[in-house]
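Subject: design request, 282 residues
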């Protein structure tokens, strides 16, 4: 047998799922299953403890799909990477979701991997965290009483992405005027997970930039903001020297953690490319 036995649950509503998630105790959630099933097999192989219960979210219709709600785009936890790529209404700041989604795994993985799994699996290298922190998303979670609460993506990842609640959706305020760029560097020339990822979002206001966000994932810690670089971009405006100036002010505490010379170099390449794109020179 590939997996140790467990009891399988397939609730149909968010409140049922949130309540079961708390009451079952020794339970693992299954979204797309791309991490979970590998983990269960690995644990069995190593003789580790496997969960008594697995709860699939596949039948919870309320968790699926992308909706426009007023001036926000709301992305359900069970939305897959392929659904992001196929969604026709991603424009302005939210278009960058497609740029990130298209590099994730293979088409087979993208057909199964969900936004919820990518954000809550607690692997430090997944890519949607930098996108959500950079786009100032709010993440909505449901507790056992069915009560839903929002936490900013920034706060969630600053707290180590820990939750015992059900992730419901991410909400992003639409901004058709924002300039956004996303860069990732993979570990090898082949299909591979990222070594680093970076999202820069800003708004141009005459000769200045404003509301700049720099979300950095060094893939060994959870995504964080580079506030010093944000300030520099806001103060410098779209000058030709911006990319070079930025490279002289990088916060080593973020970029150099458990880093190789190659990775430090590639961070500089990514930042330079991102800023060159933002000032419109590329
Ligand atoms: C070969 C391969 C290549 C990959 N390459 C990349 C890549 O390049 N970039 C990248 O970013 N990712 C990559 N991934 C990761 C992929 O995106 C993740 O596997 C996926 O995002 C996890 O989503 P899932 O729906 O399969 O989660 P699952 O495996 O179903 O769930 C994993 C865990 O996430 C948590 N979880 C899931 N949904 C919820 C929820 N609604 N509420 C609370 N907790 C929840 C639970 O703890 C759950 O056990 C790759 C994966 C594979 C297997």
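Subject: RE: design request

Done. Sequence follows.
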């Amino acid at each position: 047998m590939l997996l140790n036995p467990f009891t399988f649950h397939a609730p149909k509503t968010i409140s049922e799922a949130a309540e079961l998630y708390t009451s079952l105790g020794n339970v693992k959630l299954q979204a797309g299953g791309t991490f979970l099933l590998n983990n269960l097999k690995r644990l069995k192989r190593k003789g580790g403890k496997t969960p008594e219960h697995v709860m699939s979210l596949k039948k919870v219709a309320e968790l699926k799909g992308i909706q426009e709600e007023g001036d926000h785009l709301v992305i359900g936890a069970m939305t897959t990477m392929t659904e992001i790529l196929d969604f026709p209404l991603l424009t302005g700041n939210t278009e960058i979701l497609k740029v990130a989604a298209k590099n994730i795994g293979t088409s087979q993985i993208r057909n199964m991997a969900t936004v919820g799994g990518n954000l809550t699996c607690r692997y430090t290298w997944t890519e949607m965290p930098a996108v959500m922190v950079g786009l100032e998303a709010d993440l909505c979670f449901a507790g056992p009483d069915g009560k839903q609460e929002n936490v900013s993506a920034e706060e969630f990842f600053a707290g180590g992405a820990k939750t015992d609640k059900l992730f419901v959706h991410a909400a992003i305020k639409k901004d058709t005027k924002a300039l956004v760029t996303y860069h990732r560097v993979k570990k090898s020339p082949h299909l591979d997970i990222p070594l680093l990822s970076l999202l820069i979002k800003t708004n141009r206001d005459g000769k200045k930039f404003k509301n700049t966000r720099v979300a950095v994932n060094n893939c060994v810690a959870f995504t964080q903001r580079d506030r010093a670089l944000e300030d520099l971009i806001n103060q410098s405006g779209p000058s030709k020297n911006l990319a070079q100036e930025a490279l002289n002010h990088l916060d080593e505490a973020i970029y150099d953690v458990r880093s190789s010379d190659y990775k430090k170099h590639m961070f500089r390449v990514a930042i330079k490319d991102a800023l060159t794109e933002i000032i419109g020179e590329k």
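The first helix runs from residue 14 to 23.
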